[in-house]
Queue: 3 jobs
Job 1
Amino acid sequence: MKHSPVALNFEESGGGLPVIIMHGLFGSLANWRGVARNLADTYRVINLDLRNHGRSPWADDLSYEAMAADVLALMDRLGLERAKLLGHSLGGKLAMVLADQAPERFTQLVVVDIAPKAYPAWHQDVFAGLRAVDLDHLASREQARSQMGQFIFDPEVRAFLAANLSHNTQSGQGAWRWRFNLDVLQQSYLETSQMPDLQGFFCGPALFVRGAGSAYIEPDDRSIIIRDFPGGCIHTLKKAKHWPHVEDPQGFMNAIRHFFIDGCKGINKTS
């Protein structure tokens, strides 16, 4: 099935070999600006908003195939024949799909705290919390965080989600909206929780970064990671959970930089 790509919003910085960064579910490129700035002293960084997120267009199709077509179209638009690819969570699954579908377009792969497998419906409380926000009568992001609190107990998660609220100061009632397409994210959630079948076509260096406090990559997942990515390796950050680039930024950047230079051999140098 041929998918019609949308023109993704992105920010570009730096110069050198290109690195594409893809955020996770409910996120945006804003979550990765710190990493983008850090890498821009050495690389040409393309930090993007996936479809139905951030400032990218909305579309009914949120399949991995459709999202992959968006990224490949952006690469063609920018004249990028090959690039390093970094993706977190949902973006990490998309990175795996892209590398498997078009291995000739990617030199290295970094997958952050996600494995090539299906996951349970862990975000139902998040959707309930988002639906609890009364956008028509909302006064502030602080109020939104409070309204989410009956379903989402972690204040950091509430703050992360509330950052996706956009306020139109020209409007009165109903001036607030979500930057992500909540309806489509929820309708597509069971699909995005699954993992498309991979053929193991990407044999290049593939780094899987996991947070020791996260349940997304378990010890038993090593076998499926190496099955699908024979050039893969796993690096665990002891201080991190599901957002290693936020919870252990120094350890995360150390691992990424060594990997980009020396592949999986470089990971031994991070200790």
Job 2
Amino acid sequence: MAKAIRVHQTGGAEVLTFEDVEIGQPGKGEAAIKQTAIGVNFIDVYHRTGLYPQQTPFTLGSEGAGVVTAIGEGVTDVAVGDRVAYAGGPLGAYATERLIPADKLVKIPSGVSDETAAAAMLKGMTAQYLLRRTFKVGPEHVILFHAAAGGVGQIACQWAAHLGATVIGTAGGPEKVALAKTKGCAHVIDYKTENFVERVREITGGKGCDVVYDSVGKDAFPGSLDCLKPRGLWASFGQSSGSVPDFPIGLLSQKGSLYATRTSLFHYTSTRPELLATAADLFDVIASGAVTVDIGRRFPLAEAAEAHRALEGRRTTGSTILLP
């Protein structure tokens, strides 16, 4: 019998229950995997609280790694025994075993561990599309990345620096600021003690940034817009502090004919070729040593509620994983 973290009603971390589940045999197009590591992400909190509604009861989690134990009819993308990882597919990662559509799985290269894959797939593929497709970052660009010491932030800032960009990061408190400085940031702003808009203007000589990457949401708005050059891009991809308030579209004109987007990993990996290309780019940059993936916290799967409390309390740096 497999074990899983289930949500029967939405709410705080206390609603997470550790239960026996029956996963059955893989159907057509499916694979069964025995999981070895599971990624914890803020989107899991959004599902748990009901911000992103799901039909209850459900098993939480969007990211994991493991070994294929069985395949269903018609599956050719993976085989029994393959080490695989996934991110952004159907929910159900917070489990010792699970079924998943086989076309959502990617094979893990020999130079990447299961823990690294589970810690990096969702965050790393998010960094890939933000830096390589939402806005194609290069040596001529100055970028601002909020939450630079977080899981996505650490990967993205290293990657952006590798691409030659000047990276400005924000982080909360001396320890996170010091960490971000080791992860590709040329400048780090402590948002707890400094006004990040004023500091960006100082750092850029009043010119502003080409792009602001924002997973913070409410607390960083509208300041993020004030950090941009005319015709700059504000890329919102999360809301850890709460939703961005509704605003008139004319605000973008007032602040410099700005562009704005609210992105989702799903829309960048919705086809099999896109998924494989995105994951391959991520694994390549990890294997090259240009990006290292720090796993700040590890929790037993049964302690998923504590992992959520740590994440929401901003008591984590880098990636957090659950171990079945």
Job 3
Amino acid sequence: MLLKFKIFRYDPKKDEKPYYQAYEIQANPADRILDCLNRIRWEQDPTLSFRMSCGHGVCGSDGMRINGTSALACQKLVKDFKENEEILIEPLQVFRVVRDLVVDQVPFFEKYNSVKPYLITNSPPPDKERLQSIEEHKIFEDAIRCILCACCTSSCPINQAKETETYIGPAALVRAFRYLFDSRDEGAVERISLLDNKDGAWGCQTRWWCTKVCPKEIPVTKQIAQIKKRIIESKKGKQ
């Protein structure tokens, strides 16, 4: 079937401003949008730039906007689009464009690292591993699926607002949830202090876009709500 693409193009080294370029390609219904982009680059325009790696929804590197919605190009199938339909491909919002569909994710990972995404322990390490029950693990099991594709952060209306650029965003909060509710972690006090502010958990206004676009179907909004509840409970415990 024939697919038409309208793709965002911008090379800050030579372009005065962004523009859109049209491409057409014959594709099979089982092909992915990523396959189409690769064929455009290989067969029509080798200057087209985008990120990709595993191609199987594991690495999260090919996040982009497809018809206005943040998604992974490797998870979108040709059969889900109509023949002759123009498919709009754009870079993720929020981030500075490096070139075409490639964005600068350094600020994204800086915010991610700000929540200390690792186990904090104060007690001496055991002779073997730190044990955890299946039930304890299930509490944060969904959050482990996060592949840091940044689709949630790109879609978040709060992150998109200029006056809230310091908000750490849903991806960082999901990772904070993962450790805050890990029975082996002993840094709850420190972690809550990092999240209890307008740039942390309270920056979320419960718009649900992060949950809607998550390619791993993580209940992002609910997990952020649980962080807020944990913060409130910790304050009650001090009274």
